Fold:
Amino acid sequence: MRAPATWITAAIAVAASWSSCCCWARVVHVSWDIGYVSVNRDGYATRRAIGVNGALPIPALHVSAGDTIALHVRNSLDQPTAVHFHGLFQNGTAYGDGAGMTTQCGIPPGGSYTYVAATGRQTGTFWVHGHFHDQNADGLRAPLVIHEAAPPADYDAEYLFSLEDWYDQPFADRMRVVLDPRGKFPPDPSFPYGLVNGYNGNETQPIRFEPGRRYRIRVVNMSLTEWFRFSLPGHRLRVIEADGVRAQPCDVDALDLGPAQRYSAIVQAHDSVAANYIYNATLYANFVPRVAGMNPRVYLGSVEYAADAPTYVPPPPASDAALQLPDDSAMQALDGEPLLEPVDARISLLATSHKYADGTTRALFEGLAPFNTSVPAVPALFTAASVGELALDPAVYGPQACAHVLRHLDVVEIEVRNPTDIDHPFHMHGHTFQIVEYGPSSAGGGQNATAAARIPLRRTSRIPMRRDTLVVRTGEYVRIRFRADNPGVWLFHCHMDVHFALGLAITLVEAPDVLQQRMVIPQELVNMCLAQDGLHASGNAAGNAGLDMSGILPPPA
Structure:
């Protein structure tokens, strides 16, 4: 099941070079046999899903600052798989990012591979999930916590809440409905159930508070489509982390998390044991109709001070507007990193959709093809590493990659405009980004212009917050910045799995000339490609020389 010892030793040596700040760093070995399971997670329906070692949910991974994770994967599915460490930078090891057909060919059925992921200087709350055939949506996901040697705040204990939406059918079945040219688009809404720590959110065990103690509450939204709002009514939450980035503390009433977002907050327990309280995890989506008991779905758990105490349920707020929520534009990174400037390169993206001649509707950025609707024969990273100077030409990655080539150490600003009627959570691999500005974007007119008129202009301070996933609301634009200091090939995509599958993504090809000098793709990954029919480990997206793309299907027309 494990990769050859020579490859593991070499990979751990590379990882250790990025973790040298922590002399106590360990190598943490984890074994995942990824296969199908039959489960009833929501208490309503049994369905086929994807689990690990014959079980679902998958246990959370806990490591310490500076540790290296050796994740030994065996693929017992009937299709390729790949695993992504969401939020880890993979400095110098972009081939370990786990983005199928972007940074690697999938692990074939019956095959094995060991991911070696250095945590380096990163700490906080992350997660691990499938990144091939949207296997994340069918259960292949688990929280990852990197514990600090010196925590960013004083607290006595912590609780982890992993939140998920859960549908009653496999993702592939849902996508067949979405892509059916005879059906309507979008299809009639479906209403998933909410899971808290792997099971029906109303059937969880109490969390226990002791008077006067302080607790760190970690919350991870591992949903494929919907949002969660998390609160402990009767308690304030002091946010200290977002997406693995330490934040200047800020007090809020509740946490609002789009798919893939994470927070840590400190909660001060009351001094009395006279009453117990609740926690509230509300699953909701603004893009489907509000139906009582279905959208939103409210899940309540117990915050227990004393087993025999009555439960106090504070009255709900008068409106959502009365709740104080984290504001990315007002938050500041604790390390004080100033706003990156001047800007060297700009990318402007407009989220949209288009109906094609075959009757299907795809999501995409205007002016680009839908991402990977035609599957390349070579992962983009392998192309970047193998074609010499041609790697600087975006065309070599094929139209399906929607590639943008970045120069080493440039400050890059991306503007994303969302004139659609759906909020989008966008995630960047390989980096965190500074959040520079939110504002109204009336592109598209009609309903979206009306929404845009209600959106204020919000500019960040000179010390902006950083994170790896942010939500762009309907009628809104956002500007983000990052420095291209991590040579590799990184996705920037909507983290609603349906939208990613429909093509709402681009590829950031970062400093391919530097990558060619510094990075050697492990031979085991090369062999993995060569062993699968129709795949190659070098050349352009089609496996050919130059810009000859014969052999792969063109994007839809």
Summary: Residues 1-22 have pLDDT under 50 and may be disordered. The helical segments are 5-18, 171-178, 380-386, 446-453, 497-502, 512-518, 523-530.
